[in-house]
Amino acid sequence: MDPHKDTDRSRDRSQPLExxxxxxTMKAESNYLRGTIEQSLADEVTAGVTETDNKLLKxxxxxxxxxxxxxxxxxxxxxxPEYTFMVRLRLPGGVxxxxxxxxxxxxxxxxxxxxxxxxTRQTFQYHYVDRQNLQTLLxxxxxxxxxxxxxxxxxxxxxxxxxxxxxxxIHSQVYAIASEASDHAVHRTTGYEEIWYxxxxxxxxxxxxxxxVAAEDEQEPFYGKxxxxxxxxxxxxxxxxxxxxxxxxxxxxxxVAEDGELKGFNVAIGGGMGRxxxxxxxxPRLADVIGYVDAxxxxxxxxxxxxxxxxxxxxxxxxxxxxxxxxxxxGVDWIKAEIEHRLGFDFGPASPFEFTSNGDPLGWVKGEDGxxxxxxxxxxxxxxxxxxxxxxxxxxxxxEIHKGSFLCTPNQNVIIADVEPEDxxxxxAVLKEHGLGEFEGASALRLxxxxxxxxxxxxxxxxxxxxxxxxxxxxxxAILDANGLREEPITIRMxxxxxxxxxxxxxxxxxxxxxxxxxxxxxxxxxxxxxxNKMYLENVGExxxxxxxxxxxxxxxxxREPDERFGDFAIRAGIxxxxxxxxxxxx
Length: 587
Ligand code: SRM
Ligand code: SF4
Fold this sequence. Notes:
With 587 residues, the protein is of the alpha+beta class. The protein has 17 helices and 22 strands. It has a five-stranded antiparallel beta sheet. Strands 3-16-17-12-11 form a five-stranded antiparallel beta sheet.
């Protein structure tokens, strides 16, 4: 069968839409994601958009938000929330040219309050964009060949790819495949072009009748009218780096090379991070490796795996609609057999591979072709101009002279890639002038830290994250210093809620927000992203967190075995039990 067509043999097509979740009806009735977005954008009564259009806008890569720092004050003044928009770019593999960087930077200054946010999936976000500026922003991005399609919403999200310019041949091949997968899996509706670029709807286009999913759908041959049950994430890892956290992806590809040449990929399915506190039926899950395919089979595998989730994912309960739950409900073997059936061939046995880290090696490295690459530490991915730290200006100055490319990393950092040796001094001068290379001296824990956006823009945040983690780490640094652990790479990740946007459940130390100033504390994640962690303390404040860290890091310094990682130690020492499967995360 052709998995790209929505003609699966097993889904009950007679199930009426009203028996499914309300978002399914909303998608089906949206006229392929058009909704009334154009009317909402022109509404003079409010600065926001309707609730339905807000949901549809996600498929166009943007979210309506309001500044939570001033929400209560505006409520007191009987004003509507200060609505603005977050805009996320589609940037497979996180690669941008200097020209694109300059365009992205210019838009941040004009429409994004002089701030750019590097995300945990290798792209940029603007915050605080006013509704009337969205169209200009998207059109100017288009001029540099960037769009925001499917950056959010129930579809295939930003496709990740390992950034390891040290292995340039394989990196560029994997990047090319990741880009192809992104272009292939992105939705096809011309609603995006009509609304944002004011393009005419192609002549002769039929208005398809409303039903759950049209079998022969001209607008969306793969997705149909109801798109995916939930977001679907794809990533490509190139061992030994697991920077993309391949086990957290719905569909992960692990590159297999032979004699320096890309041969194919091991395929991993069913990863995901999000959970909800006090809802034990929700849990993070690490992907299972189900076999091997040759490199030219990647796109058919994307189709087959996504079509299985499209057809069997839960469309009644969004909290249970991610692929990880479909995989657990049906069983890995059943899902694998269904994928193979749709592919028309079986996976080969998985090839051996080894990951060593999920962090970024910082500083300069020389690639196989003699060009040099410098990975910069950008704390929590936030690029702004602060007194003494003009990071946004610094990156702009780099983009003005750099001749290679920039790579956004999955750890919210940036690589200045492909620098000819003779150009390095000029780059280094810019780094020095703008305080961009000043990570030497920072603890290895800080350099392996990540925090999600959280307050003030994220509607779901329950506690601070990006604005708090740097200060907390300064306090943890004192504990590290007291125990001689400053140079010890330990991963620490913080999120403002349990949704897991900084992939906290695979960090050696993690904090997820419960309420202002209160966090769950976790230990025991795998250093290269291979193991989930386990909750150690629930709903605690800074004092308890520092006390727990003092005790456990102290024990680690004293009792660890040579080369033992902190996460491994936490399990061996019985500080937390090992979580062998996501399903048992909450036990
Ligand atoms: Fe996320 C929702 C930010 C990566 C799991 N995420 C959100 C929203 C859009 C909040 C909302 O729904 O109102 C956040 C916007 C905050 C803001 O103000 O910008 C948000 N997520 C982010 C980013 C920007 C965090 C960051 O600091 O970098 C990351 C953008 C990535 C990108 O470029 O596409 C981001 N989010 C992730 C990841 C990590 C990953 O994909 O590698 C995860 C965990 C992996 C996963 O999906 O399982 C993640 N975000 C979630 C979830 C929980 C989803 C779930 O099914 O369990 C939500 C809530 C939801 O979808 O209902 C969420
Ligand atoms: Fe917002 Fe929660 Fe994601 Fe942080 S983890 S960005 S608080 S949804």
